[in-house]
Structures are given as structure tokens and as C-alpha cells.
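quick q for whoever's on today - can somebody do inverse folding on this one?? i tried earlier but teh output was garbage lol. C-alpha cells:
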């Protein structure tokens, strides 16, 4: 089963996704596939804060900022991937700028899904404001929208979380 959880910043999407995977994988080893890149002091602090929040919940953390296929063997059958938003940014703006990477990420996630019994994906909603951004940021937003749509199509269930309240848009768990 694959579940896509989408929400804005500080919406409660991560806590909801953790609860889903912990409930589904109770008694099993859980993988937390973390996609944040360790490239700044503030990122390092966020990573350590997130690790502290997960402490004692049974997660084995697998860090992979891009090209998640290279860590598939390290992931267990119950996987929480946090988050698509970071993964896309890392893939799109890595060593060289690549405008279209959504299809590649989709295929990587399909490979992960085929190895998983239960997979939860967390993705951000960066589409609510009406502000106009530079062309590269707009390219990222378009690619994220396209990727979220493809992942929602592939998912067995999709939830949107707002103010800590999940709304099932497709299926349910």
C-alpha cells in the first residue's frame, strides 16, 4: 500500500504520516527515508531536531538526498519517505539544474513501492500563495504539482492535512 500525505508548512502532515506508518508497521522494523540535504548549519540543526522527535519510535533512518534507488536495499518493508518536496529540490537543483525530474522520481518511488509492504510519502503544498516567483522557482512549483499528481495517481490513498486534521481525498487507511 502507498499513501501520499500532502500539506502546507507546519500543517501536521509529518506527525500524521508518522502515526500512519507506526500503526501499519506495529511490531515491524520501520524505515525513515530522510531526503533533507546536510548542506548548511540550519539544515544540520533541523535534521538533528527531527531525529530527536523520532527517537524511541522504532525508526531506522536512511538518509538520501537524491537518487533514492541507491538506498532501496537499506529500506525495510514499512517506509516513511520525508519529503518529496526536498527530494525534488535536491534532484532539480543539484550539481546542475535539471528542469524536468518528476518522471525519474516517480519511477524511483515505484521501485521503492514494489519493495515495500506499506509506504507513506510526505509532500508539501507550496501553491497556496498568490505571489509571483522567479522562473526557476516557478519551474520547481510546476514540477512539484506535476509530481504530486502522478504520485496521487499511483497511491492507494491520499490525504491532505490542514491544521493537524487529515482529509482523505482518495481511499483511506
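ok took a stab at it. sequence:
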Amino acid at each position: 500500500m502507498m499513501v501520499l500525505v500532502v500539506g502546507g508548512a507546519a500543517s501536521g502532515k509529518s506527525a500524521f504520516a508518522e502515526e500512519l506508518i507506526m500503526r501499519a508497521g506495529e511490531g515491524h522494523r520501520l524505515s525513515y527515508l530522510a531526503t533533507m540535504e546536510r548542506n548548511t548549519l540550519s539544515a544540520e540543526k533541523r535534521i538533528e531536531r527531527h531525529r530527536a522527535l523520532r527517537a524511541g519510535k522504532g525508526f531506522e533512518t536512511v538518509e538520501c538526498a537524491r537518487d533514492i534507488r541507491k538506498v532501496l536495499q537499506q529500506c525495510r518493508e514499512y517506509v516513511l519517505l520525508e519529503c518529496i518536496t526536498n527530494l525534488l529540490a535536491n534532484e532539480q537543483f543539484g550539481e546542475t539544474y535539471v528542469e524536468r525530474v518528476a518522471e525519474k522520481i516517480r519511477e524511483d518511488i515505484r521501485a521503492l513501492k514494489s519493495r515495500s509492504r506499506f509506504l507513506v510519502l510526505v509532500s508539501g503544498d507550496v501553491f497556496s500563495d498568490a505571489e509571483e516567483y522567479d522562473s526557476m522557482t516557478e519551474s520547481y512549483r510546476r514540477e512539484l504539482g506535476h509530481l504530486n499528481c502522478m504520485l496521487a495517481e499511483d497511491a492507494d490513498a491520499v490525504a491532505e492535512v490542514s491544521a493537524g486534521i487529515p482529509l482523505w481525498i482518495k481511499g483511506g487507511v
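fwiw Residues 14 and 129 are 21 Å apart (CA to CA). also The helical segments are 13-24, 41-54, 84-92, 102-115, 135-154. so keep that in mind when u check it
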